[in-house]
Amino acid sequence: MMPDPAFDRVAIVTGGAGSLGRAIVRALARSGAAVAVADQNVTAARDVETEIVAAAGQALAIEVDVTTPESVERMVAATITRFGYVDYLVNSAGLLGPIKPLWETDDREVTAVYNVNVGAVFTCTRTVVRHMMTRRRGAVVTIASVAGKDGPKDLSIYASSKAAVIGFTKSWAKELAPHGIRVNCVSPSLIEATGMKSQMPVSFTEDSVSRIPMGRPAQAEEVANVVRFLLSDDASFVTAACYDVSGGRASY
Length: 252
Prior knowledge:
By secondary structure, the chain is α/β, with parallel strands linked by helices. 47% of the residues lie in helices and 15% in strands. It has helices at residues 19-30, 42-54, 69-83, 107-135, 147-150, 156-176, 195-198, 202-210, 220-231; strands at residues 10-14, 34-39, 58-63, 88-91, 138-143, 181-188, 242-245. The chain has a seven-stranded parallel beta sheet with strand order 3-2-1-4-5-6-7, sandwiched between helices. Helix 3 (69-83) packs parallel to helix 4 (107-135) and helix 4 (107-135) runs parallel beside helix 6.
């Protein structure tokens, strides 16, 4: 691994041991960033850390429950203790929740999905940007979804949580621009070989793929590359954007 000195930064990736999170960690590490691999599954996070370190990168596995403010504070503190500061935050931790019509859902299911996809992103971002503001630099990328734009049938809890991501991304970008911090989100279509895909019935997956003009799911690496771009100085004038990685499914 040959780090790019121009991208020698420190990143926190929540959900960093998942399929998409791991791809994002790899992309950032290849670019020379030190990465905190934050995940509830600390064993899997340590596996990612070992992989990155073995390739001459810098990584730190951190156990975190993103729905608990105290755990998020410890995540940020551990990152700063190890690397000195935080330049980038990627909110990749997410929960699909139930695939069922509205009248079959209950409030516990709504709360569970919103706690991870909305509440935890508020907690993580609020906590990290306070540190970024003191340095007047930083970038945040949150994983949204095309579901937040087109509202798939039987997926209203997840879809509405991702619509919230798109909305608060635009608000936070305007609030944080004067502090030198950019905020964007990425809106993927179905991603191959992820935990969320494995939770979907085959018929639902097939329908999702049929709506993609390119005729296939996204690869995790394709999404990770867009995240990397949005964090990098190459995207220095990009903020408040929702970048689609959908093979043409989303067109606005």
